[in-house]
Design a protein that fits this description.
Blueprint: H1 2-10, H2 13-16, H3 21-24, H4 35-40, H5 44-68, H6 80-84
């Protein structure tokens, strides 16, 4: 019953008719979403540039988190002991203000073999 009501409402003039939601919320109806209107509204240009750069930096940081940190294991090794020592002696932190020498990091830990 609920699914049929939802499907019927999509075909209603409220959604698709003249002055309906689809026409009012379309691609070209909002100011600043087309190149023509973005050139006209000069104040929106820095906003789009800053938000675009922010999205690129967030994406790059997420890729770095997936590749460099110890929380994600990309190795398909069946023996978990082989993955435990993979990060021994490697720096995986992004920022090291304390100046920790990671070449000897994890050597004092017991080996799981």
């Amino acid at each position: 019953m609920l699914i049929s009501k939802v499907l019927k409402s999509v075909d209603h003039p409220y959604m698709t008719g003249v002055g309906g939601r689809r026409a009012n919320n379309g691609y070209g109806s909002m100011q600043g979403l087309t190149m023509k209107s973005l050139k006209h509204h000069v104040a929106l240009q820095p906003l789009f540039a800053i938000i675009g750069a922010g999205m690129v930096f967030v994406g790059a940081y997420l890729v770095r988190l997936a590749v460099k940190t110890t929380d994600v294991n990309w190795r398909k090794d069946k023996n978990p002991a082989n993955t435990y020592g993979y990060y021994d002696g490697k720096q995986f932190k992004f920022f090291n203000p304390a100046g920790i020498d990671y070449s000897k990091y994890g050597q004092e830990r017991p080996k799981f073999e």
